[in-house]
Write a structure and sequence with these properties.
Layout (H helix, E strand, L loop, with lengths): L1 E10 L7 E11 L4 E6 L5 H9 L6 E6 L2 E2 L5 H4 L3 E4 L13 H9 L13 H12 L18 H13 L5 E5 L7 H17 L4 E4 L3 H6 L3 E6 L2 E7 H5 L3 H12 L6 H5 L2
Helix pairs in contact: 3-5, 5-6
């Protein structure tokens, strides 16, 4: 479903601020993979995700989504293949519009606009059923402005919006980092439920090693713009945070220097 081949990306080349963010990165995601991505600061996690989304062009290599070469496609043209949820709960929704209006926008993404009545009652019933699956009581608040929702409720709604059209790839960019632990756990539970029920292919960047081990069927660790560890299945289920740190030290030749990840042990 996703194939990255020999991806290179350098920021500010030829200057004192030159930073090689991706260094010959290779990655293949099979359909239905839910991959947690971890690594220290500057490891290349967000750069890889933004490269997939087309936020900036890569210097070298190819990016394929479901067999389609999208390497030269700009961000807005890749949007048809992707769903994204960001770290900031304020992104991904329109705060001044209500819940049903936000869902209607997500459902109509990529469709031609008409002069037909905005939201029909049948559609409203569909939204109630979808929101009921979140178990947050939002199905009874269709006309509530999204800006009045809590961070967790908003992230759950964003997840629903990002997956309404069943994207080929779902990108979760530290989407629980701004939430308190209890709310973050709920949003992660909802994320895994949506991904599994819709058989989506997903990539989740996180600084929380426990979450990376607990969620998804695969875990990759990055360092210096490359993947240094890729575990899945039973091997992933049996991992511990201590084992993960030990493997990082052994493979990279140095200790993990990342306060956020170490605090989230």
């Amino acid at each position: 479903m996703l194939k990255l081949t020999n991806i290179h990306k350098t920021f500010n080349p030829g200057t004192i601020n030159e930073k090689k963010a991706l260094n010959g990165l290779d990655l293949v995601l099979e359909e239905g993979d839910f991959v947690a991505v971890i690594g220290g600061n500057g490891a290349g996690k967000s750069t890889m995700m933004n490269a997939v989304a087309g936020v900036w062009p890569v210097d070298e290599g190819t990016i394929e989504i479901d067999g389609i070469d999208v390497t030269s496609k700009p961000e807005h043209k890749r949007a048809a293949y992707l769903g994204r949820v960001f770290q900031d709960p304020m992104m991904g929704t329109a705060a001044n519009m209500n819940i049903e209006e936000n869902l209607a926008l997500a459902l109509r993404r990529g469709q031609a606009r008409t002069l037909a009545w905005g939201i029909r009652e049948k559609e409203r019933g569909q939204y109630r059923e979808l929101l009921r699956t979140l178990d947050l009581g939002l199905e009874n608040r269709l006309t509530t402005k999204v800006g009045l929702l809590s961070g967790g409720q908003r992230q759950a709604l964003t997840l629903l919006m990002a997956t309404l059209k069943h994207p080929k790839i779902l990108l979760l960019d530290e989407h629980t980092a701004a939430l308190d632990p209890k709310t973050a756990a709920k949003v992660l539970e909802i994320s895994e439920k949506i991904i599994n029920e819709n058989h989506l292919t997903a990539m989740m960047v996180t600084h929380n090693m426990k979450d990376a081990i607990a969620h998804g069927n695969r875990l990759i660790m990055m360092n210096d713009g490359q993947i240094i560890l890729d575990v899945r299945g039973e091997e992933k289920k049996n991992l511990t945070v201590e084992e993960l740190l030990h493997r990082f030290t052994k493979i990279s030749g140095g200790e993990l220097a990342n306060d956020r990840m170490l605090l989230n042990r």
